[in-house]
Structure formats: structure tokens, C-alpha cells
Amino acid sequence: MSNYTKTEPSTIRALFDSIAPRYDLGNALMSGMLHKLWNNRLVSFACKSSPKNVLDLCSGTGEIACMMQKRLPAHYTLVDFSEEMLAIAQKRLPDAAIYQADVEQLPLQDASFDVATCAYGIRNVRNREKAFSELYRVMKPGGSVAILELTRPKQKILSRLHALYLTTMVPLIGKLLTSNQDAYRYLCNSIHSFVAPELLVQELEKSGFTDIKVKPETFGIATLFTAKKA
């Protein structure tokens, strides 16, 4: 049984603190560098409207915000609950506003952001309803949201191969990189247990978001969700 569980957020915080130094390398190895393609799709959407104020939720080491900053001068706000992840992000983006906080209770003012991004983090949130409600609150009217998440392919054979890869190779990569095989076993389980894209769309709609679009990436191994605040 894993030591990490969403019902105890402190354990997830400890997980990400423990793997922070090798987190980006782990993502590259586990995805076979495909995450670069997915991240670029997310960033391209987020930059399209030339936002002035950008919010990056579950920001981790700041990779997404850093990619955006290279394309677009704007004011960047990063939120994550891992102190070690944010320490890396702060070095990458010294001018960004950095908040160590839970996305279910954002320490941010209403209607503050033109664009918000969230990559590979929403599946680790204990209460997505609260997180989406908070996200809706801090977005400006007309603001855009882009959520990138790892998902399960629908095609049967690919789904089985994907599950086999997650349960065998990913924990091994985690053990080699960080000596914390259990952390990467949790990350695998979080993908297996994550809701279907259709349910996430319903949750976004319930929170008030409109114009929701779903784009599977690489046969559904990842999915990009985009939405707007009316």
C-alpha cells in the first residue's frame, strides 16, 4: 500500500518535495520526451490571447511558466503546495509572484487573471470542485483556462500496453532517479484512477466555465482541456 494519498494532502506535498530535484528529468524519461509536445500545445493556447496576467496552478518547478515567459512578456503568478518545487521555480522565474498554497483555497483576488494553466496537477487535487470554483473566482470575465493532464487511452490494445508500461517501467525509472519507487508508484496509480475526460468537462461546467474543448494528445495518453469564464 502506498504511503501517499490524496485524502492526506501533506503526504502528497512530501512526495513532490522528495522528487523535486529530478522531477523534470523524470517527466522527460517517462514520457519519452512527448511531454515537450504536449506542453507546447498548452503554452501555444495560453499565449494566443496575449494575456497580461498569467496564473500557473500546480506549477511545480515552473516549466510551463518558463516556456510561456520566453514567448510572452507578462506578469506570472505561480501556485503550488510543494516548497521544494517552488524553490526551483523561483530560481527560474525570479520576477514571478510565488505562492505556496493549496489550489482549493487560493490566496488571490477575484477576477485577477487573463489566462490560467495547470499541467499534470489536477489529478492530485483532493477536491476538484473546490479547486475549479476557486479558479473560476480568480479569472477575469472572458479569461481562458488550459488544463493538461495524463489520461488513459481508449483503444483497448493501447490501453493495456499503457497500463503495463505504467505499472512496470515508471516505478523503475522513479527508483533509479530518486530512490523513491513508492512515489512513482503513486503517480502511476493516480493516472489509473483519474476520471474520464467527460467527467472533468462536467465538473468544469458545474463551476461555471463555458466553451469547453477536449483535445486528446498522442492517442489519449494526455488530454488538453480548454475553457473560458463567461
Describe the structure.
Strands 3-2-1-4-5-7-6 form a seven-stranded mixed sheet, with helices on both faces. 40% of the residues are buried. It is α/β, with parallel strands linked by helices. It has helices at residues 9-19, 23-31, 34-47, 63-71, 83-92, 128-138, 156-178, 181-192, 197-206, and strands at residues 53-57, 75-80, 97-100, 113-119, 139-150, 209-217, 222-229. It has a single domain (9-153, 195-229), classed as Rossmann fold (3-Layer(aba) Sandwich), CATH 3.40.50. Helix 2 packs antiparallel against helix 7 (156-178), helix 3 crosses helix 4 and helix 7 (156-178) packs antiparallel against helix 8. It has nine helices and seven strands, in the order αααβαβαββαβαααββ.
Describe the structure concisely:
With 230 residues, the chain is α/β, with parallel strands linked by helices.
Structural class, by secondary structure, is: alpha/beta
The level-1 CATH class: Alpha Beta
- Kindly report the average pLDDT value: 93
* Tally of DSSP β-strands: 7
Radius of gyration: 17 Å
What's the name of the CATH homologous superfamily?
A: Vaccinia Virus protein VP39
Q: Report strand order across the widest sheet.
A: 3-2-1-4-5-7-6
| Whole-number count of domains | 1
Question: Which architecture would the CATH scheme give at its second level?
Answer: 3-Layer(aba) Sandwich
Uncertain runs are: none
Distance between the termini: 43 Å
Number of helices: 9
Proportion of residues in extended strands: 15-25%
Largest sheet: 7 strands, mixed
CATH topology type: Rossmann fold
Helix content: 40-55%
Name the helix and strand elements from N-terminus to C-terminus, one letter apiece: HHHEHEHEEHEHHHEE
**Structural shape:** globular
